[in-house]
Design a protein that fits this description.
Length: 226
């Protein structure tokens, strides 16, 4: 079995599954310490492996950069298990995650703009882009949380894990425009970042619909000429 070939052929399906697991696996878990110490590093390792297919045809420098970011997002969170998490350490973790997810997000967008047809890869890549936008929002909000004073009201501050999970929830309902109001931004950094995230979510959805319609129109047009 050629695993690299399988990862490349089904790269967007695998990436979508890894993102869903990373964002929402905690809904199946009761022990948050187990989630932090075991599941989180395992999630990041799975996400790194399942993102290999997207970078399989990239240059050596791009692969090196991606692997450096992957190493950072795996080993920096593990260090929290053995060291007291300081604001500086949390900011480094957030910056590394933002860079990693932005890097993948850009590659997904490039792919969405290329083909003139719709297939399962396009649908999976579209969903990946949406979840990657949420991931970028999560670690951007965490950077604001640890870098400013009183950025949010309603977040469970029991541990950095509960903070993270509440921010996952907050970013998910912001991007989807649900906005229950149980967690709200309370300083201007958080308010503006939340506004940008909400606008980005709507913009992505609108542009994605336009891309899909364009691809479908192009595909049906080409079929009618044959």
């Amino acid at each position: 079995m050629n695993i690299p070939k399988i990862l490349h052929k089904r790269k967007y399906e695998f990436l979508l599954a890894a993102l869903l697991i990373h964002l929402f696996i905690a809904v199946l878990l009761y022990d948050l310490d187990f989630y932090t110490n075991i599941i989180w590093p395992l999630n990041m390792l799975i996400l790194g492996i399942f993102s290999l297919g997207i970078f399989s045809e990239k240059s050596r420098m791009q692969l090196i950069f991606k692997n450096i970011l992957l190493a950072l997002i795996i080993f920096l969170p593990i260090s929290i298990i053995y060291l007291k998490p300081t604001p500086l350490m949390m900011e480094l973790i957030n910056i590394a995650h933002i860079a990693f997810y932005c890097y993948i997000f850009i590659e997904v967008l490039r792919y969405l703009l290329k083909p003139s047809y719709i297939n399962s890869d396009i649908v999976s890549a579209s969903a990946c882009g949406y979840l990657l936008l949420i991931e970028i929002g999560i670690f951007s909000m965490q950077a604001i949380y640890y870098g400013t004073t009183n950025p949010f009201k309603g977040i469970d501050t029991t541990s950095f894990t509960t903070i993270y999970l509440d921010i996952v929830y907050f970013c998910s309902i912001t991007v989807t425009s649900i906005g229950f109001g149980d967690i709200v931004p309370s300083n201007h950094y958080a308010k503006l970042a939340t506004s940008i995230l909400g606008i980005a979510g709507q913009f992505y959805s609108v542009v994605l619909v336009g891309i899909m319609i364009s691809k479908y129109t192009s595909e049906t047009g080409n079929s009618s000429k044959k």
